[in-house]
Amino acid sequence: MKTSLGAFQDAFVAALYQRPAAELQAVVEQTGFEVYRNTVLKGCVDALCDNFPSVERLVGTDWLRAAAAIHARETPPSDARLVFYGEHFPDFLDAFEPARELPYLGDVARLDRLWIEAFAAPQDATLELASLAGMTASDLAACRLEPRSSARWRWFAEQPIYSIWRHNREELPMPEELPWQGEGALLVGHAEGVTWQALEIGGCAFLDACAAGHDLDHASALALEAQPDLDFTALLGRLLAAAVFRPLNLA
């Protein structure tokens, strides 16, 4: 076979996902190849079940494994580290016909994915409250608070996604009455694991502004624009306690 090693490897991977190139037909027809293909597929399915535990608790193991097998055939991993597998799984669930009666499932999967990202992100240094002591009001207004690499947040405007996710992630019974309204979530990775908490729309808007490089004065104004009744002082205290920000760059 006159082909480069890289081209052969790409063709072999495609054949594993039932897209065999003509030059590999003899390889694909061997009995051992099907065994190898099934082993690879099982590894992908196992990874998706491990990476989306809240989804699994909602739909059950058999349902998730069946959906994961379809997704794995359509979208093979792009990274050998299977902890990162499933980047496109929430979008898949949004369009998956058997999930039509669970319109929140894709967003629950997105929070499971944010947990993975927070868990695997580099551990930056943390802004300490004491470092703000002595700063004037004008200095504080002009400073830029930069979220750490392990901080993740998201606002879900139409459904109580955080509540659904948290109760399933923590294996808690769902409340009998759950207000069907928008919710936000904040997840932060630490050396000892990932913490999470609810986050209002103003908090999400504030962190979006911080991530975009706005100073504290402008970021707080955007937060209050998104949520006029926001207690900004309380929000900032919660974010500092959650170790969301990197140390200030005062250079």
Describe this protein's structure.
InterPro entries: DUF2063. Residues 8-93 form the Putative DNA-binding domain. This is Putative DNA-binding domain-containing protein. Pfam families: DUF2063. The chain is mainly α. The protein has two domains: 7-102, no CATH class; 111-251, no CATH class. The protein is 51% helix and 8% strand. The protein contains twelve helices and three strands. The chain has helices spanning 5-16, 25-28, 31-51, 53-59, 61-74, 89-95, 105-120, 137-142, 161-169, 201-211, 216-226, 232-241; strands at residues 151-156, 183-190, 193-198. A three-stranded antiparallel beta sheet has the order 1-2-3, with helices on both faces. α4 packs antiparallel against α7 and α6 runs antiparallel to α7 (105-120). The protein is globular. The termini are far apart. The model has no long low-confidence stretch (mean pLDDT 88).
